[in-house]
Specification:
The protein has 5 helices and 5 strands, in the order βαβαβαβαβα. By secondary structure, it is an alpha/beta fold. The two termini are 27 Å apart.
């Protein structure tokens, strides 16, 4: 899929998970600029364009955000709260989690996430999840949400 000129922000404290995500994105989306942060605090600073992230030529506002649920120094929910407080015109957000706690997915959707999925190290499953997130089929969406959960 072509996503030339669009930016995705990946917020995850795990360098392994960032590696697998970058590999999946490189295989799926040509022309997509990928930016990485390692905490919720860094993601909020990126979204606000503050501090290190003040230069929007180097750190463009993302069209997509994929965030880990649980991170030190601000979690994925803090990112969703930031986006809810000052909603951008168009941004899709997916939360990934290692936890199977159903309250996490309910809370994520309640704060405006477009999708929620359990983390996986399987490259084929990860590519499928990310592909559906980046390019959802219209009939999969319900009220603007694209729920993606793995059992």
């Amino acid at each position: 899929m072509k996503l030339t000129g669009q930016t995705i922000l990946i917020a995850d404290d795990s360098s392994d998970d960032r590696f697998f995500m970058e590999r999946a994105l490189n295989r799926l989306a040509s022309g997509l600029s990928v930016q990485f942060v390692a905490s919720g605090e860094q993601a909020v600073a990126y979204l606000n364009g503050s501090g290190l992230y003040g230069d929007r030529l180097l750190f463009p506002y993302p069209s997509f955000v994929i965030t880990d649920c649980e991170m030190p120094h601000g979690d994925g929910f803090s990112i969703l709260r930031r986006l809810q407080a000052d909603p951008p015109a168009c941004i899709r957000v997916m939360m990934l989690s290692s936890s199977e706690d159903p309250n996490h997915s309910r809370r994520a959707y309640g704060l405006g996430a477009n999708s929620y999925s359990l983390k996986t190290q399987d490259p084929a499953i990860l590519m499928s999840i990310v592909s559906k997130f980046l390019d959802p089929l219209p009939d999969e969406s319900v009220n603007g949400l694209n729920p993606m959960r793995l059992a």
